[in-house]
Amino acid sequence: MVLLRELQDGILTLTLNRPEAINALTTELLRELARAFAKEATAPEVRVVVLRGAGRGFCSGQDLREFEGQRISYKGHLRNYQGVVEGIASLEKPVVAAIHGAAAGAGLSLALACDLRVAASDAFFTTGFSRIGLIPDAGMNYYLPRLVGYARAFELAALSPRLGAEEARALGLVNRVVPAESFAEEVARLAQELAQGPTKTYGLIKRALRRSASATLEEMLEYEALLQEVAGRTEDHQEGVQAFYEKRPPRFQGR
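RESULT FIELD:
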């Protein structure tokens, strides 16, 4: 199977499973990912999704061998990526990219589409596209300049430098860098914290932050008020307030 799925304690782990190719992306794998985000990830028992790679790296990007000797429509093929990237963005639950080894090309694009990125100290990053005469795709042109600014995004896209984990963190490409030897434990700890949080609220936060990319201040103030009305009616809000009064940790149920 090119994509492994595991659900435990509210954490859905999706593992890219082509370790012999550093999890290079194929049409089959992309369709499986899109299906997972559209179906399994939306199940009520899922509170958080972790996206990771099997073997020695996260993802080396598009598998160029898939189309070797063929004349392909890039526009047509990129629809396979759109399903994944849009699935991550529209999922009203946190998605964590757990990155070790290489995150290159479209593999980096998938990582940038996630809500949080945790990198092992041995991880490295490169856009890669310009080295084969292509522009970034799979959402990288949307996320990269929003994370690092136009000038830095152009530099990374045009020159494709290889960045170490700490360099990536300093630029804002990843949230955390953890020692490689404790990487799995740190990812599990973060996923557990998110899985025990107010899931509905996390989804509303994603909605608000996405809207802010194109909204005016006045529009965002109105949208915040609308979403806060929704959040205020959740069971988790009631539990949070009750826990505050009782001076105890809240026990959120994701409702």
